[in-house]
Design brief:
This protein has 9 helices and no strands. By secondary structure, it is mainly alpha-helical.
Amino acid sequence: MWGYFIFDLGNSMWTGQPVTHEIAIRFELSMQVAIMATIVATVIAIPLGILSAVRQNSMTDYLVRGFAIAGIAIPSFWLGLMIILGLLIVTQSWFGEPWMPPIQFKSIWEDPAHNLAQLVWPAVATGYRYSAVATRMTRSAMLEVMGEDYVRTARAKGMPQYRVIGIHALRNAMVPVVTTIGLQIGVLMAGAILTETIFSWPGIGKWMIDSI
């Protein structure tokens, strides 16, 4: 128990290496998934949230809100399975030969193309769920800001719409959105357990499943 408090967890029965070393190398890989998923979520969420707010109560708004609700409702591990099946079916029908993400891990320093080909799909599967949360937050923040006096004043002065949205509204609306996205990184680390297992990504999540 004393070793637990001083971070001396002994050696792994499988590899003979210190357990803290095993955790450290896998934590780095899980963090890589979390950062990539955060980038995916941000790239998806912010444009969709702005579009939904600008076209409030239009068909576009309804579609974006449906996309966000689906992202919250769909489990990331199920989406991962559907991505793999979809890739197999599409590549089989288009190219005559099925293709799926590589399952043998290679470091980004060893083979960047192989590493990203394996990383991008778990990042998409995990990031989609959190893009839904960020999309709803962006939409709400933009709607709140666009009703402020300074935005109405900018429009009354004849400022172009893209400047009103991009300079005056978006800058102030990003404060809660950035906070939400930052807080999601820890959640992404925890939520990648099954996704890492499905895509054979050797992070903390897959290591925990293998250990169990």
